[in-house]
Amino acid sequence: KMFQLTATPSSALADEPVAIRATGLPPSKVVTLQASLKDEKGNLFQSRAFYRANKAGEIDLEQDPALGGDYVGVHSMGLFWSMKPTVAFQRLLKRDVMNSPFCITLDLYDSVCFKDSATVPPRVSQMVQRWFSGPGVQRKQIREGRVRGALFLPPGEGPFPGIIDLFGNIGGLVEFRASLLASSGFAVLALAYFAYEDLPEKLLEVDLEYFEEAASFLLSHPKIQRPGIGVISVSKGAEIGLAMACYLKQVVATVCINGCNMVVEVPLRYRDLVVPPILPALEYSQVHMSGAVSLQRCFGELLNKSNHQSVLPVEKAEGKILFIVGENDECIHSRAFAERAMDQLRSHGRSTGRMLAYPGAGHLIEPPYAPLCFWSWQHKLACPVVWGGDPVAHASTQEHVWGEIQKFFRQHLVKTTNKL
Amino acid sequence: MAQLTAAPLSALVDEPVHIRATGLTPSQLVCLRASLSDEKGNLFYSQAYYKASDTGEVDLEMDPSLGGDFVGVHPMGLFWSLKPETPLKRLMKRDVMNSPFQIQLKLCDPDVPITNRDSSTLTASLTLERWYVAPGVTRIEVKEGRLRGALFLPPGDNHFPGVIDLFGSGGGLIEFRAGLLASRGFATLALAYWGYDDLPRQLREVDIEYFEEAVNFLLRHPKVLGPGVGILSICKGAEIGLSMAINLKQISATVLINGPNFVISNPHVYRGEVSQPTPYSIELISSNALGFVAFHRVYEQTGDVDSQYFFPIEKAQGHFLFIVGEEDKNINSKCYAQQAIEQLRRNGKENWTLLSYPGAGHLIEPPYSPLCYASRIPYVHPNILWGGDVIPHAAAQEHSWKEIQKFLREHLISTRTSQL
Q1: Which residue among A370, A372, B124, B215 is least packed, with the fewest CB closer than 10 Å?
Q2: Residue A231 and residue A222: Cα distance in Å, rounded?
Q3: Do the Cβ atoms of B68 and A30 come within 8 Å?
Q4: Distance CA A103, CA A129 (A)
Q5: Interchain contact A283–B (C-beta under 8 A)
Q6: Residue B328 C-alpha, separation from nearest chain A C-alpha, in angstroms
Q7: Residue range A331-385, pLDDT digits in tens
Q8: Boundaries of each Acyl-CoA thioester hydrolase/bile acid-CoA amino acid N-acetyltransferase domain copy (chain A) (predicted)?
Q9: Rounded CA Rg of chain A
Q10: Is B184 helix (H, G, I), strand (E, B) or coil?
Q11: 0.80 exceeded by pTM
Q12: CA dist., res. A84 & res. A207, Å (int)
């Protein structure tokens, strides 16, 4: 019997779906499909699912249900988003986004293999490449004034709508989302703000003038549209993104994923203004049965305290704000903070905000098909932290959110220019 | 001067401890930490945050934990929420006669990162002893005929109801529950059946005649009350316990914790009659977001539905106590208990009691045992999910232990008085 395994396209952007099919199998045989990936540090991530071939000896992941394994049911991209690290608490994150893809090996075994290392060789294998930048996308290292980061430009003359991309307490420079967005036609500045090059090693305060410099830099670039830019931000980055929306007129469209509407932990400074932070109460942390820590209640307690000083004045934002909420976020009480911000907008008669809440999604909402990172090591606290999320719901959330983010930016950043 | 008290300092593991802190400032936030080193040097930890009263006291019987390993009023929470430093290690006492588990209780300043175990801001500490045998309990190594195990006898010259204690999972001789049951007045035989001494290194078949030898051995013992004996069994042990109760007339009372009502993996043999193991679908296993594997669906097409596989429980003469953890992710425990009970009902029998515990997992152990919600079984799988939510699991352990003793006393002692 000639076992065959096809994955189409075998080389694509990481946010594009892949159609996986197997043929030439014994009729009605239960087989194992396994996906394996080694990240840039050599850490192994794997997933597997068990499928039953039909009478013609075929399996089509777009129609057939997994019987068991890392997911159950019809999930054509399940092998990708259910991958898990073999060593606990590791997070899958592409660092070099220009020069190499993630290489995923798909293996088909003609029996049910559920132990970590199969005792039989696979009958057939296929390699799939997942790229984080499309053809023609350019990357420029940025060291302008204080600004540190990487600017991703789509191919062509432009001008392109400009976006600043902010991650959270992971620090350093995280580029993969910026490069993927650039592959969809946006000019994106992945901006670092601590623990990178000559930036401060620890985040002791949020200096909004630094982010204003970054915004001005972006707007001064010949390939970037004027007069306004967007911001895409997650976690701690989303708190900063929201502050940018409030205080910086050049920010006209802001996506805040699972962030607080208050200044938390470290003060926010902008010119003469110093906004005091509210401190999470660590005594409300909860140790998950795995030993990892859930911080959600520490931040949740902030909602009970009436610290108006620390609340960000969203009513001052002139641009549009899109709040993305994972309802199973174990890090912060994301929905409650987003609702507070939406209430604040309404009570000031502003209709600039919109909230999308996703049941089952966790804290780390990433581009489509990214594996759910349920928990990982958090360096600041020196312990593993639970991010939360139910795998199936989280995966469909990531797909939906990516489309909504691009729609939002196209609607509010791309202006039809009146050529006189 | 801050003080920490706990009473009693030395007790059986199934006895509660009253923990208090005094001499604090009003509303002072403190952290209570428990730590334990098992016989192999594996460390287990738990912690909880409390706010002192106006009189500077914390009383765990009345005051709620704000966060940490549990939330709310749980006087014994520090015990049952202990977690291994190395993930997936199960806490289990091996030498039950000569030493207790020692638990260090520490009262600390909470101004330290959550998982900083070696806090230098220690205010007070004490050591508790948790024993698995009461003073005067004797242990007799059993090596008669084929039998291998340990017999635990309560102190005194009386006759005691006899119980055979059977575990499942990894074979060997597990003694801690038998020692505890003996401390509560039962002559308890911890019986090994594979992976111990000169017993088979792997279980090939369940020879009920071996277990019949054990029953006869117990009944022959001068300190054992007859005319029947009881069984306390979990998981694979419960599968065997059920088989024993059906085939051996001297079984008067059988406690079945999270067991199947059909043959699993190895055939049962009794006087030439062989019961074959039930077919299963291994492809129905599934991994949760953390990568732990649930096995409870593998009998979905056979043992879960088809009565041809069921044990003929209606043939048993003794009484049954079914204990079910409804969140058992290892076997479909609730379904199997219900099937067995239905079969008894259909045959006009009322010799059963069901205790079904929402939120409890597979490994229901004596009170205050830490929830082991996943661990590894050598040769089977590196990370098996047992299931259970910490708080309801702890409550189930407390409640079921009392019910087990009541049940065994009712059906092992009253048979004797009814003969007079």
Answers
A1: B124
A2: 19
A3: no
A4: 5
A5: yes
A6: 15
A7: 999 999 999 999 999 999 999 999 999 999 999 999 999 999 998 988 777 788 9
A8: 15-144
A9: 22
A10: coil
A11: yes
A12: 37
Contact at CB, A289 and B115, closer than 8 angstroms: no
Could you tell me the two tokens for B176? 């801690």
- Chain A interface disruption, residue of B58, B78, B114, most A CBs within 10 A: B114
Full DSSP string of B364-413: --STTPPP--EEEETTTEEEEE----HHHHHHHHHHHHHHHHHHHHHHHH
- Give the model's pLDDT for residue B414: 66
The per-residue pLDDT of chain A, averaged, comes to 94
A155-180 pLDDT, tens digit each: 999 899 999 999 999 999 999 999 99
Burial of A2 (0-12, 13-18, 19+ CB in 10 A): exposed
Which whole-number Å values give the CA distances from A97 to A184, A232, B251, in the listed order? 15, 18, 68
Query: CA angle, A296 as apex, A292 and A301 as ends, to 5°?
Result: 135
Instruction: Find the range with the poorest average confidence among A180-184, B64-68, B289-293.
Output: B289-293
> What whole-number distance in Å separates Cα of residue B117 and Cα of residue B119?
6
Determine the angle formed by the axes of helices A208-220 and A236-247, rounding to 10 degrees.
70
Task: Tell me the mean pLDDT in the region B51-70.
Answer: 96
- Do the beta carbons of residue A221 and residue A186 sit within 8 Å? no
Instruction: Tell me the catalytic residues of B.
Output: 235, 328, 362
* A287 reaches B (C-beta below 8 A): yes
Q: Is A228 an 8 Å CB contact of chain B?
A: no
* SS3 category, A257: strand
Q: Can you tell me the distance from the alpha carbon of A25 to that of A49, in angstroms, rounded to the nearest whole number?
A: 16
Eight-state DSSP code of residue B359: T
Please report, rounded to a whole number, the percentage of residues in chain B having pLDDT higher than 90: 88
Q: What's the whole-number mean pLDDT along residues B101-130?
A: 79
Run of H or E residues at B213: helix B208-220
Strand, helix or coil at A224? strand
- Residue A307 predicted with pLDDT over 90: no
Q: Which two tokens stand for residue A196?
A: 């990178």
The residues of A annotated as belonging to the active site are: 235, 329, 363
Q: Rounded to the nearest 5°, which phi and psi values hold at A376?
A: -160, 170
Give me the phi and psi of A360, to 5 degrees please: 90, -15
In chain A, residues with a C-beta closer than 8 Å to the C-beta of B283 are 30, 50, 52, 67-69, 112
Six-digit token string for B161? 């109801």
**Does residue B379 surpass a pLDDT of 70?**
no
Cβ–Cβ gap B114/A391 under 8 Å: no
Question: Which of B47, B85, B290 to mutate: most A Cβ within 10 Å?
Answer: B290
Interface confidence (ipTM) of the complex: 0.86
